[in-house]
Amino acid sequence: MSSCQSLPRFVQLAQAISSSATQLHEILLAKHLPFPTFDEDDAFQMPKEASKVQDVLIDAAAELHDLLLDPITLIHHYGTYINMISFQAIARFRIANMIPANGQASYEEVAQQTCFTEPVLRRMLQAAMAMRIFREPEPGMVAHTKVSKLLTDPRMNDWLAIPTEEGWPAASKTVSAYEKWPGSEEPNESGFSLANNTSDAMYNCITSPPERAQRFANFMRVTASSYDYDPVHVVNNYDWESLGAATVVDVGGSQGHIAIQLAKHFSNLKILVQDIESVVANADSRVPEEFKQRVRFEAHDFFQPQAVAAEVFFLRLVLHNWPDKYAVRILRALIPALNHGSRVIIMEICMKERGVLPLWKEKLVRKMDMMMGVLLNARERTFGEWKALLTHADPRFILKEVIEPQNSYLALIDIRWNDPQSH
Ligand SMILES: C[S@@+](CC[C@H](N)C(=O)[O-])C[C@H]1O[C@@H](n2cnc3c(N)ncnc32)[C@H](O)[C@@H]1O
């Protein structure tokens, strides 16, 4: 865009969109891939080679959109609380399942399966249609788009239910929580705690009733299945091979989804997954027979001193759930098991300064950061904040390298324990 500085910004943006759209078209043609549509059976997936073009297209189109709005309409556009009403209705009543695949249902038929009158239901769904969720193939009728079709999967519906049933009430109390507990480092002093009128932190509160726990588990499963969180980034972006016959402790490793992938790709590795009792209780049954010798589970509270000797302690998506005071405790609890040169690998978002990421990705990362605050009074951290956290926990934690896989928000932060006195 630098060659056309004299042109007004909206023209520069339109030109960037035009040339990037041509590039994307050529990539898709060359690879015989389908073009994106909103059709319910749409099979489009952005090829990895097109990710730079995708960044330019989305950011330029969004900037053009924002640029052409007046300020009040712009604020109105980003004030998304109204959108949550349709999302909540759709998720709570499982409305996506009321529309037949490749068919249609009338507003009246759908309304009869909910608590809404037909006019209210129609308003809810027409607001959703403005966001590409459902469509009106003819007056009075509702059909799927690719977005609403996705929600027919019960796990995807739960994925939508968590922001509406848990996140939205908690978000509305978050400013009040920061006001009530300024500078708090307690996970139970959050918008979530206020919204639920509880002194429990989110993870303790969300375990009952069972349907609530199941809904949250499904939300986590869907989130973990997105490409950004794919275990492939753990496998491909660290030199596990060079560790030889090493033991890796996956601290807070849930039911072993990362451990199984490590065992599958690195036959010399043994992985011990530690998590809370209820999580690891039956986890062994999920491990394929061929890996059972090398993937084991242990109930261990990561605030208690680590007792297992290992070459590597791996913590993925653990510390971002905790305010600094607790993250420091989790790191210090590893110290009894660390020898000079032991590795601690943290896999987390490493927040960038503003403007480094394409804006559409920065928006997603900043939402994740805000969500950690809303739910757990926690946060995502920048490189500088990770470094400061480690030094605060103990200056013998030496940050060696930050590895940033392509197409993943999660970086691998490679740390060595530096204490020649330890064995
Ligand atoms: C966000 S999940 C991350 C799971 C996994 N590491 C991954 O990358 O998908 C955080 C994990 O920390 C576990 N956890 C929470 N409190 C814990 C504690 N006190 N001791 C051990 N694990 C805990 C949770 O059960 C959960 O599995």
Extract low-pLDDT stretches: none
Average predicted local confidence, pLDDT: 95
List the ions, cofactors and other small molecules found in this model: S-adenosylmethionine
Percent helix, as a range, is 40-55%
Percentage beta strand: 5-15%
Identify the CATH homologous superfamily of the largest domain: Vaccinia Virus protein VP39
Query: Rg to the nearest angstrom?
Result: 24 Å
Describe the sheet with the most strands.
Answer: 8 strands, mixed
The structural class is: alpha/beta
Helix tally? 18
CATH class of the largest domain: Alpha Beta
Global morphology: globular
Structure explained in plain terms:
The protein has 423 residues and is an alpha/beta fold. The chain folds into four domains: 3-75; 80-150, Winged helix-like DNA-binding domain superfamily/Winged helix DNA-binding domain (Arc Repressor Mutant, subunit A, Orthogonal Bundle), CATH 1.10.10; 154-225, no CATH class; 227-417, 3-Layer(aba) Sandwich (Rossmann fold). The protein has helices at 9-30, 51-67, 71-78, 81-92, 107-111, 118-129, 146-150, 154-172, 174-180, 191-196, 202-205, 210-224, 232-236, 257-265, 277-280, 324-332, 359-376, 383-393; strands at 105-106, 141-142, 247-251, 270-275, 295-299, 312-316, 343-351, 381-382, 397-403, 410-417. Strands 3, 4, 5, 6, 7, 8, 9 and 10 form an eight-stranded mixed sheet that branches. Strands 1-2 form a two-stranded antiparallel ribbon. The termini are far apart. The model has no long low-confidence stretch (mean pLDDT 95). Bound molecules: S-adenosylmethionine. S-adenosylmethionine binds next to loops.
